[in-house]
Amino acid sequence: TSWGGGGARGPPGSAPSAAWYPAPGAGRRGGGAGAPPPPPLDPTEVDELHDELAGEFLHGPERIARSHGTTFLLLRDSAGAQEHARRVLELQAALPEAQRIPRIEAEARADLAAALILGGELDGAAEVLTPITTLAPERRAAGLVERIVHVGRLLSTEPVRTSPGAIALKESLEEYTRVAAPRQLGGGAARLALE
Asked: Is the pTM for the entire model greater than 0.90?
């Protein structure tokens, strides 16, 4: 069988020749030599998969900013993480209350607290966490619990680990995650990729 270039596939067990592989674009709509051009897109056409179930494919600016903030945390870039986490909170605050996503805001607050700790701002971290301490255990989603666990780990590092404020905050966060619904921890200690 020839694909894309006219070459034949070798005998079973042998490495195929380069000509056996499809030509670039041959498997895509409108790709490949001699293929007809794709029909023009109709902007009014409804694509149920992507338009009505867009949650898997389309993220709003607050989710994108949150993802960027988490990336900066992975890089241990306090300033960058703070900037994006604060952006999430600003975007959420600008929305009507019915359109806000509490989970996104809570996770952004946890990321902001972690970024503040990286920057040595312990008091600011404690303050930004205050609104999420009242969340009922069953509303503490896995992503939030993992972020809180990460904040607790940062409180055990230099230069903050020996300060009374860090010790008290770490203890309160341990209690926060302990009483979270067991399903949020998946039966064991959730390990965050932010280590």
From this structure: no
Question: Using 50, 70 and 90 to split pLDDT, how confident is the model at 20?
Answer: very low
pLDDT at 4 over 80: no
Rounded CA separation 100/152 (Å): 27
Q: For the packed helices 61-74 and 102-118, what is the interaxial angle rounded to 10 degrees?
A: 30
Cβ atoms of 40 and 160 within 8 Å: the answer is no
Q: How many CB atoms lie within 10 A of CB 69?
A: 25
- Cα–Cα distance measured from residue 41 to residue 43, given in angstroms and rounded to the nearest whole number: 6
Q: How many CB atoms lie within 10 A of CB 188?
A: 7
Helix (H, G, I), strand (E, B) or coil at 24: coil
Best CA proximity match to 108, nearest among 80, 79, 131, 88: 88
17 vs 11: CA distance, rounded Å: 10
Torsion of CA 127, 106, 141, 101, to 10 degrees: 160
